[in-house]
Batch of 3 targets.
Target 1
Amino acid sequence: MQNEDAVTLRKKLEALIVDDLQKQLSQGEITGDRAAEIAELVLAMVPEDITHEQLLKVIPQLDDKATELSGVVFQILSEQDEKHRTEMIGKLRLSVGEMIKNA
């Protein structure tokens, strides 16, 4: 069974990319051909069966291949960093709470 976190993150990434490409197309920043190239690139790099760990490694590489995706990559990585930080703070609080309780 596929990792639920990977499915959620992949869907969010794809939605952000679609929105961003549509915006860039409507503003004349990219051509339809370039948007199609980027879409093919993303589909190749982010298959449906990708794991969460693989996805976290692939996301930073997307804007290396298509600089047009830098805003999306930054947004996703920032959100993932904040999520990780929040999880770590929660674990730290639990550990400190246990240490105080056992003292």
Note: Helices lie at 4-26, 32-45, 52-65, 70-102.
Target 2
Amino acid sequence: MNLRRYIYGIGLLLLVSLLTGCSKFIDDDLSDCPPGPNPPVPPVEDEYELNYELRLVTNITTEINTQLDTETEAYVADALRSHLSTIFTDYARDVDLSFYDTDNDKERLYHENPTMNASEKSYTINLPKREYMHLAAANLKDNKVVALTGDERSLTSQLATVSTDEETIDSHTTGLFTARQSMRVLENVDQTFHVKLYMANCAEALVIEPRGHTVKDIKVFATGFASQFHISDSVYTFAEKSPVVRSVKVETGGEDLCFCAVNFPSKDEEGMRTVIETDFDETDLGETCWQFIVYVTCEDGTITQTILSIPEPLNAGQFRIIKGYIGDQGEIKTNDQMVGVSVKIDWNDGGTHNVDL
């Protein structure tokens, strides 16, 4: 055998053996290895800042100061201010933020429910560049009477009275605020969007002087208000039969009785949009816009029903006080000539109003 061929063969066998068994000796430290091909990197979404501000536009201070201006009414004024302090406030605890497609079915593309706990708050949100319709609603979490429904699409998103088997509903427990804003998000551009939220509900109070009359019980309801609010176009809708709102008795610490309810607005001639100005027009009077329904249980057990009809619309953000006094037969009288009064002595439930007595 040729020595040269023998040596060549041995070397070839050693090389093959080395190549096939080298994995046992490979060090896992690849820090000195040249980089391999990079994996695909997902596109980076630009960050945009959104500043949210609650704008409380209300006449509550003027209404209380004007209607309860005597020294004997001061304790009622203080009680109402305290009772409504969580309603007419520019403070939001929670906020619902939705961003919708402006084409096709207007579907929601992005959704967040951050905690706000402020009257103003800024959030940084990652959004791909495109056109959006942005809708926001605040203070829903603690309001069990109203819920956000149909919010998968912008055109159906609304604040709606929670469905119950009864026509009588509870008063709202928070001041509700909403906003709508078109947004054009640009690529590689620093953008800040300012979103202003305005109040979507309102309140009314009935203050009653006993004037020496004693009764067993008084219950007060209010009716004539919207049941839904469509956020995208800021329009209220009304059920065929208006819900009856159960008022809350406000402890005044004095002789005068006070009942207060919080709800959606009544009808008016302006398309029922949210109020963004401070001028509340109360001069355009027409037919009844909303009502107080009062049931007084007299000492002999009979019930007197009084319906107070108000021709002035009650707008979003607005507060209205009606003052009255108890008559000899348990009826509620008022010196306000703009308020219509209808009385039924010895009333019994004939099905006109399904209220809980």
Note: The two ends are 120 Å apart (CA to CA).
Target 3
Amino acid sequence: MPELDDLAGFKRALLDQHKERCLVLKRSVDEDLADMITARRLEVEGIVHNLRRSREKRLDEGLKANRRRVELQKKAFKIELQDNFFQRLDEEVRARVEAFRRSPPYGDAMRALAAEAEEYLSLPSILWVEKGDSVFLKPGSALEVREGLKDVWGGLLIEEKESGRLIDNTFRTRWRRLRPFFIAKHGIPEQ
């Protein structure tokens, strides 16, 4: 039965050879799979890296846009606050001037304003005042008083008849000239 032994040995040799080829093939497939997995992992890592950079860039752009928007809103709010402040300031000054207009010294102030303006204009001239203020001024042959001004907070405007040149001595105009100095003196940022 040596033939059977040879046959059994041949079978075993074939089986061993087959197992060896399977192992080689398996190693080759495992290496190919490992290479494919590594390549795919690197590809995915690249995609993830690019997505992160893209997201960070969008986030940075969004933050910059938000900062710009907040700065603009802050400026608009500051302007609104300043506008409200200056409006209240103007209203307070106007209220004080209106209270002054109802006081006895107002007539003296009107005469002083007229005399001041007359120094710079030649006669004949017209003194323009608000309604009711003409009682404080004396018209003459060269000086005519007319009540035609509105909403100037008192005071007067002098017009040269010949040239039409004007001197504005109204309290509203005087406040508007003084306002920047008042604001600077008190450290108030103007818009």
Note: Residues 2-101 form the longest helix (100 residues).
